Amino acid sequence: MADVVIRAAEGCAPDSYALWDSVWDADRGLADWKLSDGSEPLNRGGLQAGNAITTAVILALFTDKRIEETHPLYFLADGDPRGYFGDAIDVRDDLHEGALGSHLWLLERAPLTIRNVSAAEWAKQFAIEALMPLQAQGAVVRIEVEATANELRSRLDLTVRLFGRDGQNVFDRKFDLLWNQVAS
User: CA 102 to CA 139: how far, in whole Å?
Assistant: First the structure.
């Protein structure tokens, strides 16, 4: 375990790093924080902060967004609407902020077809909705999402591509969501 270093002056520096990198571990199916490797002069001993887009995507997709009772898939929540606690503290419409996360968690035990729509189509819709704040805030200009159901492996494959102002691909990653389908 690394020592925790408290840096009194670095937090006030104009170029301090405020958004830490999430490092996706596909084998374990989770994201974690990574310690800085020392290459960031204002962040020695802190958490790595070089891939803000990756962090934003992982937080947007894999934070459980609260589901309202009026949502057509509310019945899949089994009475637990979940949701990120921070949404009750500070959500600003003037900055195009909304509730953090996605409803992808609803598909963990969903049938192949839900309300006459495939689970893959729901996944695509949920992912696009979760990533739209990145476009609204100007971090990316275009979002592409593909979702396919892999019945034999009991999972949904989700591919996310994001493009910057210059048209360059700034994020391209495939995620597999565990999917334990239930009878409809």
Answer: 18
C-alpha–C-alpha distance, residues 136 and 129, integer Å: 11
How many CB atoms sit inside 10 A of residue 121's CB? 13
Torsion sign (Cα): 147, 69, 77, 114: negative
DSSP string, 55-72: HHHHHHHHSB----TTST
Per-residue pLDDT of the chain (184 residues; tens, 9 = 90+): 444 443 334 444 444 444 567 676 767 766 677 777 777 777 666 777 677 888 889 889 989 999 999 999 999 999 999 988 777 777 777 776 778 899 999 998 888 888 999 999 999 999 999 999 899 888 899 999 999 988 777 778 899 999 999 999 999 998 877 665 554 4
Retrieve residue 166's tokens: 């210059």
Number of domains in the chain: 2
- Cα separation, 75 vs 83, in Å, equals 16
Residue 114 sits in a domain whose CATH number is 3.10.450
Strand partners, 162: 143, 171
